[in-house]
Amino acid sequence: MEEFIDNLPPMDLMRSEKMSYVQLIIPVESAHRAISYLGELGLLQFRDLNADKSTFQRTFVNQVKRCGEMSRKLRFFKDRISKAGIVSLEHPVMQPDMELEELEIQLAEHEHELIELNSNNERLQHTYNELLEFKMVLDKAGRFLFSEKNHHAIGDDRELEESVNSNHEFIDTASLLEKELRSGFSEQSGVRFISGIVCKSRVVRFERMLFRATRGNMLFNQAPADEEIVDPVTFEKNAKIVFMVFFSGEHAKTKILRICEAFCANCYPVPEDLTKQHQVTREVLSRLSDLEATLDAGIRHRNKALSSIDYNLTKWVTMVRREKAVYDTLNMLNFDVTKKCLVGEGWCPIFATPTIQETLQRATYDSNSLVGVIFHVMDSVESPPTYFRTNHFTNAFQEIVDAYGVARYQEANPAVYTVITFPFLFAVMFGDWGHGICLLIGSLILIVQESKLSKKKLGSFMEMLFGGRFVLLLMAIFSIYCGLIYNEFFSVPFHIFGRSAYKCRDATCSNAATVGLVKYRDPYPFGVDPSWRGSRSELPFLNSMKMKMSILLGVAQMNLGILLSYFNARFFGSSLDIRYEFIPQMIFLNSLFGYLSLLIIIKWCTGSQADLYHVMIYMFLSPTDNLGENELFWGQRPLQIILLLLALVAVPWMLFPKPFILKKVHTERFQGRTYGMLGTSEIDLEVEPDSARARQHHEDFNFSEVFVHQMIHSIEFVLGAVSNTASYLRLWALSLAHSELSTVFYEKVLLLAWSYDNFIIRLVGLAVFSFATAFILLMMETLSAFLHALRLHWVEFQGKFYHGDGQKFKPFSFASITDDED
């Protein structure tokens, strides 16, 4: 058996790639090019040999600062291009590569030009805003003055008001009053005014402050501005209010001006003379027209400069990111001043060693270096990182496993089995081939559009869906398969594989749901017989079937997990784990729940009416009692007693031997009595599990710690065997919930609406049914089944063998550089 296992071909993804710890001695003249080529290759993870040094004490800190400064300039360009509304286009024609120094000079020139253009544009925009505000103040203030003077004249002579307010002579009379009162209005009345403009959001507080400061001795007029003012810095439009404050006294004027300054209100002088007002307005309009032309020319020039920058922006950003990544990596290497070389260490897969050597030789040749890069393999006491070679299909399943924890180096990888078991357990809970077809269509759309969607920046939800498109595909396929077994198409059964095995007791079929059906032919060839739908025993039958099926699937998957722990122990050469963990765990689990699975299968095959609840309960309470009508096969009672004794023996088997054997081995090793026997010892110390091997490097062997750890592990397995088996009943519960929800939406929404002979009611019913199917059954139920399948794999399956305490292989690669690493 052992020879057969050893001769099996290695399974892809079953074990992580074998890693080598390598050292590189790189001449200074070819260091930059060598690291750049390795970044393009992406198969070498460098170790930081300068971890004890701060960032500012490293060799290439100045180059990193320069790259950071260039990244800042590129972000500034990108921000300005975005604010200017310039649409970035893809430019397939690439310019010749340039050196970093040349790019740095070019970026500095572009930044200086843009800053100068922006500064000029902001000054012009600020002047334009002032003139625009002045124009609106002149327009509104003229109306304020007219109304105030007219009110003053009418207050002095009410008889004149009565005589001139008749017919259509009001306008002409007002004009005469303006002519009489327009000179010396302030001098005659002693009333002065200040006009200006303030933000609309501050006008209420502004008016209240003016009223309190002047103790109510003022008149405040306001009117909304006709146009919004554009902020020259943020490009936001702000609503403004034109105001005019009438007051008396020099002291009040000082207070009002200070308040205007505090509220960022701009004050503008408005002449009382109408002729002067018109003259000033004409001057303002003329200057506004000139400024508009100047602003348009400046914006065109700025947009032209931004467009030329945008043409090469993507290439520059990529180049700066790569250069910064190269210098960050060079800072992880030791700089040997005497030999003028850089020394680096890191991990790489063994299969990539020839490729890395060829890449380093090419870097030496391209940099015209007389000395080549020295590359050799070293020994390391550290645990290597974990690296699995995945593709578009397997990557999503590997990410599901890695979300729980990265596999220990060379540990059995659950992703190999998750590819099948995860979508299958999802489908057991989601089984409906109508809903499965909907998921299949969605996954196929994502797969067909893969080339387009991979180039777009997707939202978090769409990015998650796109990354798991193949998971969604398998989930849909298995959902269709399980839906055919359950015979549910949006909860409706179909006679797909032939005629039903049951018929009604009479022609009317009126008592099918109460009395039941009669079997008259062979069973339905595949899946659930469609005649079960609506029958009296539909729910008891489906509940019993799905519950027992859940237990069978759970016990099978837990046995697979324990079996993988055997392959792990065998791979690492740990005979202790095989003898005192794997064997008792298999005995305990299968003595109880493996036996229960056997009873389920026998009951299905024989059609027995035995109560399995009674059998399992009294197996513990009264193992020697006669089973009576619950006996499924000959010799069942003695078999139950033997299995119960085996389960009881398995618990101390897991708990006691391993800690005492480890203590004995440690004592013999450090007392020097059996050094000659180590080679022939039953236990190979060099291939002990990592935890045991780590302890044996220390002379202080903490037996109590080892014993407590083993006791916790044993208790966890014993209790987990019960709780984990019960946890698999979620397969039955969610399958039942999904089926019942589908039935409710179909019967109580769609069929109810279709029973009315009204087009609108039918249309509303169809819309509600479609909404419920899409958002509740296809979205919420999919997410629920996904999370429950995730829990079953992380806890019930992986908990039996998977440590998940490894380190992920993170090679230096330009492909892994993201936008957040600027």
From TrEMBL:
Regions crossing the membrane: 424-448, 469-486, 549-567, 587-604, 639-656, 759-780
Location in the cell: Membrane
GO molecular function terms attached to this record: ATPase binding; proton-transporting ATPase activity, rotational mechanism
Chief location bin: membrane
A GO cellular-component term linked to this record: vacuolar proton-transporting V-type ATPase, V0 domain
Membrane topology qualifier: Multi-pass membrane protein
Any single biological process term in GO: vacuolar acidification
Residues in coiled coil: 98-127
UniProt KW keywords: Coiled coil, Hydrogen ion transport, Ion transport, Membrane, Transmembrane, Transmembrane helix, Transport
Family of this protein: Belongs to the V-ATPase 116 kDa subunit family.
PANTHER family in the record: V-TYPE PROTON ATPASE SUBUNIT A1, VACUOLAR PROTON ATPASES
Role this protein plays: Essential component of the vacuolar proton pump (V-ATPase), a multimeric enzyme that catalyzes the translocation of protons across the membranes. Required for assembly and activity of the V-ATPase.
Name of this protein: V-type proton ATPase subunit a
